[in-house]
Amino acid sequence: MNLEFTPEELAFRDEVRAFIEANYPKHLIEVGAREDLSPEDMVAWHKILGEKGWSVPAWPEQYGGTGWTPTQRYIWNEENARVNAIMPLPFGASMVGPVIYTFGNEEQKAKHLPGIRSGEVWWCQGYSEPGAGSDLASLKTTAVRDGDHYVINGQKTWTTLAQHADWGFFLCRTDTDAAKPQEGISFILVDMKTPGVEVKPIKLIDGGYEVNETWLTDVRVPVENLVGEENKGWTYAKFLLAHERSGIARVAASKRGLEKLRDIAGHETLDGEPLIKDFDFARKVSQLEIDLNALEITELRTLAGEQAGKGPGPESSILKIKGTEIQQRLTELTLEAVGTYGTPMYGSIADPRSNDYPVGPDYAQHSAATYFNMRKTSIYGGSNEIQRNIITKMILGL
Question: What pLDDT digit, counting tens, does each position of 85-127 carry?
Fold first, then answer.
């Protein structure tokens, strides 16, 4: 595989870099944690990219994609990672969007794809339930046909950022007598303002509010919101998860995180010497870099396959496992490097979320919160244990 850029690719990189430097919101460049962001901040770059026509580069051109080559998409990710850009939320652009343009009807495409591209419509995902996480096929939420509507009842959990969502895509059981648990499931689009939809916050260990439990009580949804065929939702769910798992790898972001870690380890000291000179710590950083380089090659191969018309398949499970493991090791090493500076001294007892008077250097802030938050990455999108089962069956044939 040739990893050298052609003159045309270098020109593309310069074009992308110049656009980002001129248009990326300056106040977002050094943002700390997600809790520091307003909903408007989270979609600001998405909306700018929507106007440019660059918000969904992986989509087919007929639906608003850019037509970029795998190398151009690689460059795009690299250049955004350089400024730690807040990329379009995946729920619309990377998850439900591909399901709609692949399996949806023309009316659904016309209604929903423009708002996803522009960033004007916020989506959330209704997959996991209290008793159906990794074993998603055991979901209990039902959708019962009543004339030209489905009546949905059930509970979803870990619904990320549902408190801001306009629409959600939900897996619901439409045939309770199906022979197999994977059968009898449908993929339904739900307007989150529909009566009977209730979103309740789940507070995380770092005090943040990012995920929710979503209750659906006699929620009436038009039958026209069914994507594809009734009882075929498991097929669409697997298709969506393959796209989600490919994106979870976040190689470019991890490369930037590794650069930051090396910089931190050059400033922090151990026994009077920079931490990066400690053999034990340097060995862990080097092994992380080796694994990240190998993952990058795998991601490039996957991108090349997509360019050739091969959608993400079981190899996306490899990207998901290694990508999330690397992200977790990266946050662990960062927290190890900053030590007790990773825990801020809050500025006010009355305001426990206040961080006006942090202890230690700026680069140490949010490292503990990020470490705790990243524990989730090996679970969402299908736990890494489940991904190993997929690899065993689909790739190794065991």
Answer: 999 999 999 999 999 999 999 999 999 999 999 999 999 999 9
Locate all alpha helices (DSSP H) within 249-376, ordered by sequence: 251-267, 279-307, 315-338, 367-373
- Per-residue pLDDT tens digits for 122-143: 999 999 999 887 788 899 999 9
Q: Is 120 a catalytic residue?
A: no
- How far from 189 is each of 16, 39, 150, 226, 313, CA to CA, in Å? 34, 22, 11, 6, 24
* Model-wide pTM > 0.70: yes
Tokens read off for 205? 């260990």
Nearest to 63 by CA among 21, 113, 13: 113
Residue 172 is inside which H or E element, if any?
strand 167-173
In whole angstroms, give the CA distance from residue 88 to residue 75: 17
Q: Which amino acid is at 253?
A: A
Determine which one of 79, 213, 244, 315 is catalytic. 244
- H or E segment at 194? none
Distant-in-sequence, close-in-space partners of 110: CB < 8 Å, separation ≥ 6: none
